[in-house]
Design brief:
Blueprint lengths: L7 E6 L11 E8 L8 E3 L5 H10 L4 E4 L2 E14 L3 E8 L4 H12 L4 E13 L5 E14 L18 H19 L2
Parallel strand pairs: 3-8, 4-8
Antiparallel strand pairs: 1-7, 2-6, 4-5, 5-6, 7-8
């Protein structure tokens, strides 16, 4: 089994308020803690800490990719950190390259509204409801994507503060709607 085969992805939606500053700067949350995604996974606080420390110590950075394609880097994440809400990122789309210009135009027009993390699970457990609790992750990349898995995580180029309770309510509403759609 190759290392690449262990790579997993988590998605988060930008939200309607996303704007591209100066034609290329984006920032916000790529992952939220304690929010169940559509795959039944819950990222726990501190899951990224060791990985981020290892990246810094080795002089490497989290990559910004287009749709998880390692052949299509589209920018750089200048800041990636955990806070009380989740994994916050701030970066620049490289508009000097064609795909970076395309990404900036698509985000600015609202055609692309998702972020997705590429990672490898290092430590996880199950809760009483069968959800996978992700306790330690090796973060590889954060991509701009078309279809987000965690629609309650919002990104704002203005760095707006998240109302976590509202986000949890939205996540519960999306989960309820998803369950209703499964009913015969």
């Amino acid at each position: 089994m190759t290392e690449k085969s262990n790579l997993e992805h988590k998605f988060a939606q930008f939200g309607d308020e996303l704007q591209v500053q100066d034609g290329h700067v984006i920032e916000g949350y790529a992952s939220l803690f304690d929010a169940k995604d559509q795959g039944g996974d819950i990222v726990q606080k501190g899951a990224y800490a060791a990985s981020l420390q290892r990246l810094i110590a080795s002089g490497r950075a989290v990559k910004m990719l287009w749709q998880h394609d390692p052949a299509q880097p589209i920018g750089v994440w200048d800041e990636v950190r955990e806070d009380q809400h989740g994994l916050w990122v701030k970066g620049r789309l490289l508009t000097e390259i064609e795909k970076g210009r395309e990404a900036a135009a698509l985000v600015g027009a609202g055609a692309i509204d998702g972020l997705s993390i590429g990672y490898r699970t290092l430590r996880a457990s199950k809760d009483e409801k069968g959800c996978r609790l992700l306790q330690e992750l090796e973060l590889w990349e954060v991509s701009l994507v078309t279809f987000p898995m965690l629609p309650s995580a919002r990104v704002s180029a203005k760095g707006e503060t998240l109302a976590v309770d509202v986000l949890r309510e939205l996540a519960a509403a999306f989960e309820g709607a998803r369950q209703e759609m499964k009913r015969p």
